[in-house]
Amino acid sequence: MPITLKLYAFLSDYLPAEARRSNAVALDVPDETTVAALIASRALPPRLVHLVLLNGQFVPPQERGARTLTAGDVLAIWPPIAGG
């Protein structure tokens, strides 16, 4: 099923080179794929996966293993941000 994965800041390095400019890549994932399974399949380091939004709604860490993706979903992920 088709979904869109968006990775921001330095996580965009985990996207294919041609997708880094837009920070987004269209993916075809199996039915019943969870947010956690997709994160793992893209080899994103867990300590760098901080803010996760599914269709604009926050997905807390404890829910990522149970939240399944559906066709057309947009999953956006940000790393921890530090600044001053």
From TrEMBL:
Classification via Pfam families: ThiS
Organism: Accumulibacter regalis
Domain of life: Bacteria
Signal sequence range: none
Name used for this protein in its record: Sulfur carrier protein ThiS
Lineage, top ranks: Bacteria, Pseudomonadati, Pseudomonadota, Betaproteobacteria, Candidatus Accumulibacter
